[in-house]
């Protein structure tokens, strides 16, 4: 499967002689070295790919370069060096007119502060992108109403933005992005201005929509819990550089350095981990039924704990073909809730038609 979006060695430098600054960065200079000369390196050598239908989260503290990176992905900012490829097309090689056409039809953006027009109705706000495209009024209103319904705003089409709560206004912003049927959604801290309960509700809304629409999404956040909840893959940024890219479990269990580890220390692991992440793969098993009650690789950690609490032996983890791929002893669950996972091996014997046993290879 080819990537929907590719970032290749992206740099963004503000200030004097940016090309020279990029060369210095390539030779090992740091942000502070450039700042002394009045130059700011916002993004340094950023590379990643985003597959179709994936939510790719870029996470970092304020000033890490994540919003600058996002704006290079749709051409709002021109990279100082590097390339952005969208659906195989090099956006950095397009003319301004070609780039505007891509932004209006294929890439939509959802902003942090809603960016709604106060003098337009909810329907007209949701239809704005289609109006820019030149879609006839009846068609754009139909598509806007469909998008609003998807976002839980059916019945509010004729209302004004100031009649809506903050969460509802953000739903209008999301509906506006969905109405254009763009292939790529860019979401810049889209939920960070909302109250915690509304923010979680919007996360639920996005995940529910994603099950149906399967959009390709790049989501910017400074909140690690939000990143872990939403992201199929996560890139962690620090001082303009991507310091680690991986799944939520990779980031949590295998941090690349102390900086990433410090981010993860307060994360509720039970909301992130699955059976596959915590199971012991050094087991004995086969494609036959296991003597132990089983879990699937994607069984949530909390559900796994509930199963384990009823047993006096490990929980077997089986794949769709009913092959045992790992087991989870209770002490291992306790270990993963602490600072370090338990490394104690465990075995689970499984029945075969001939009564024998067979070892499952380490994955």
Automatic annotation (TrEMBL):
Key words of the record: ATP-binding, CBS domain, Nucleotide-binding, Transport
Signal peptide: none
UniProt domain ABC transporter: residue ranges: 5-264
Top-level taxon of the source organism: Bacteria
Compositional bias (Basic and acidic residues): 350-363
Any GO BP annotation: glycine betaine transport
One GO CC annotation: membrane
TM region positions: none
Gene Ontology molecular function, alphabetical: ATP binding; ATP hydrolysis activity
Pfam families: ABC_tran (PF00005)
InterPro entries: AAA+_ATPase, ABC_osmolyte_uptake_ATP-bind, ABC_transporter-like_ATP-bd, ABC_transporter-like_CS, Gly-betaine_transp_ATP-bd, P-loop_NTPase
PROSITE patterns: ABC_TRANSPORTER_1 (PS00211), ABC_TRANSPORTER_2 (PS50893)
Chain segments carrying region Disordered: 340-363
Similarity-based family: Belongs to the ABC transporter superfamily.
UniProt xrefs under NCBIfam families: proV
Protein name from the UniProt record: Glycine betaine/L-proline ABC transporter ATP-binding protein
Species of origin: Streptomyces mexicanus
Taxonomic classification: Bacteria, Bacillati, Actinomycetota, Actinomycetes, Kitasatosporales
